[in-house]
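Narrative of activities, Objective 1.

The group set out to show that a structural description can be obtained from nothing but a protein's sequence at a throughput compatible with the screening campaign. Below is one input-output pair from the validation batch, recorded exactly as produced.
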Amino acid sequence: MELTSESGSHRQTTGCLFICVWLVLLTQWFLPVVWFIRSFILHAPNMQVPGWDFHEFWLAARLALHGTVSQLPYPPTFLLAIAPVGLLPYPVAYASFCVLGISAFVVMQATIAPGFARKHLLLLGANPAMSIALLAGQNSLFTAAAAGVALALLQSNAVLAGACIASLIVKPQLGLLFPLALICGRYWKVLAWSAVWTFSIVVASAAVFGIHAWTQFATHLSKFNGSYVEQGTWVWTATLTVFAACRLNGLSVATSYLVHGLVAAPAVMVMAYLWIRHARFELRASALVIATMLVPPYVMFYEVAWLVIPTLLIMRDAKAKKPTPIEWMALIAASLMPLQGTFTRWVDLFPWQLTPAVLISLMTMVLYRHLATQPNTAAHDSQIRASLTTHCPDA
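Output recorded for this entry:
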């Protein structure tokens, strides 16, 4: 009787959790759907089109198809990737962008955690990162998908893993640490293939848009960094970095860079240490993603869709060490960071940047989990290799 009572209580708790998750899912998608209907079907007046950043990219793609290269804070490789959307009417292009972004994000989660419990995937689906990224019209779901799939394929498919890493050249700051991780982990084949793919993409962009597109990008990037990253007050509220937090609190540009470096450098060292020591896949992959969010001084609020990767991996690492209540709190806080970034950007009542503190907490958690279970690392990693590899590893 006691066992039956406990089982019933567990089912009730699980049922309540699923109801809450579905409510969050419905709530977070309600606004984008209504916005889409009012803009494209009802043609409501004075209504900003959804996916406002994507609208700028779509315009740049249409101009590129007519031989004009627009000034964007992205390299020509990004313009090469989005050029095909210029062939479509904006509503169709934006709808396709949303469907492809969601599909890529879901495939990444299924790839990086094969056999993961559906209830956990549903819980991750309630993460507001997807709806925020799509409403802003940003490509963070695609870049997060590329990073996650690359990590999942490191052992089994060097060619595709290299291609996924190379695709991050559309936003080079997000792929900055991957070569270092590959060197520390001795993934030489993946490193070579990522270099080949990156070179090919850069050459293709230069062939399509001309060398002048790259010189134009370099000039514009310098102006963008000075006008927006360093001096743009409104950008700081949307940028979830230590540098932006320092600028919001009145520190000078030089001091802000110094403080940012004092946080970024240890993050890189921890990440490198875990890859050199060949820590459990979940931990070293999480460290790479967290460090990627901590190192650049310019990471916008929608980019924290990447935090789904370490959240998923640390939940998966529970097989090696059960997360403590404090660790669960850190994972929940990480899931809420897209909302925090959105509120910081648009609501003056919440002008603080909490994401850097959460990222530092996650990195500390990852390092602690490695040190606390270090003797079990080799045995656990052999299990990961067995589950992820279909070919011989190159490390």
